[in-house]
Amino acid sequence: TVIGEKYPIKKGEDRISVLIPQLHRDKDAWGDNVEEFQPERFEELDKVPHHAYKPFGNGQRACIGMQFALHEATLVMGMLLQHFELIDYQNYQLDVKQTLTLKPGDFKIRILPRKQTISHPTVLAPTEDKLKNDEIKQHVQKTPSIIG
């Protein structure tokens, strides 16, 4: 096998490693402003260069937690936006820190709770100080156990 019409690869002798951080910074794929944080690049997924972004790898060695991670991130983001208003600092300049994952360095954000509206009546459980001991026993639910 010859890669790029230049590099012969011998079966059983040679190994290939893909440098994912470099792949994600390929100027041929992303343009000269590759180091700029531009999430808009992913607004139209069909325009994202093929094989230019592999945060979870692919093929038989792909991360098995990819779908779970994406669903979990979507759920967390929705819950955060539902309950809090996020206010960023306007003069922040992106500084990417590389650890196990990529993240913004020294990024600070203000979080304010949103005003909560209740669309259903509130039902409060009885508290211990309002009940006598024998009344508490009546409110305790016992769950059957298959262990015994």
TrEMBL record:
Record: residues binding heme: 63
GO molecular function, one term: oxidoreductase activity, acting on paired donors, with incorporation or reduction of molecular oxygen
InterPro entries: Cyt_P450, Cyt_P450_CS, Cyt_P450_E_grp-I, Cyt_P450_sf, Cytochrome_P450_Monooxygen
Cofactor: heme
Gene3D superfamilies named in the record: Cytochrome P450
Recorded superkingdom: Bacteria
One Gene Ontology cellular component: membrane
Pfam families with a match to the protein in the record: p450
Subcellular compartments: Membrane
Keywords, alphabetical: Heme, Iron, Membrane, Metal-binding, Monooxygenase, Oxidoreductase, Transmembrane, Transmembrane helix
Family: Belongs to the cytochrome P450 family.
Name of this chain's protein: Cytochrome P450
Organism for this UniProt entry: Bacillus cereus
